[in-house]
C-alpha cells in the first residue's frame, strides 16, 4: 500500500473573487476555517509532499484532458454523521464535471479512493461548517438556505496542497484544466 498522509490533498479551490461569502459562513460555522482554504476535496489523504514531483506528471495529464468548468454554488446541504453530528456544505452545480474530474484523478491514483468509497460514490461539496445535533442542523440549514445567494465561478485548475503538522494548507502546485469541452 502506498503511503498516505492527511497533510496533503488534491482539491478544487474556487477563485479568490468568490471567497468572501463562503468565508463569511465558514468563519461562523467551520472549526477548520484556519486549516483549509475554501475547497472541494478530490483526493484526500494523498501522497507525502516528498512524492509531489513524481505525482505531478499524472496530475498534469488529467488536467490536460479536462476543460475549465463553470460552477454555481446553488444551495446549502448537509451530510449526517454518527451521534447527530452533521457537515454543512455548498452544493456545486452541475456536479457531473466535478464527478468526472474526481474519477479521472482517482483513476490516475487508484489507491487514493477515500472520496468515492461511499455507497453513493463521490459527492462534490464545499464544506462550510459542522453541527452537533439534528435540531441545530435543521435550524441552521433553514436559516442558511433562506439567506444564501447562488454564487457563480469558473474553475480553471485543481491544486496540490500541503501543510505542516499544525499549519494551514498551502498550494504547492496549480494544475491547469486545459482540455476542451465536448
Automatic annotation (TrEMBL):
Transmembrane segments: none annotated. It comes from the Bacteria. Keywords: Ligase. InterPro entries: Cyclic_Pdiesterase. GO terms for molecular function: ligase activity. Pfam families: 2_5_RNA_ligase2. Gene3D superfamilies: Cyclic phosphodiesterase. The keyword Aminoacyl-tRNA synthetase does not apply. This is 2'-5' RNA ligase family protein.
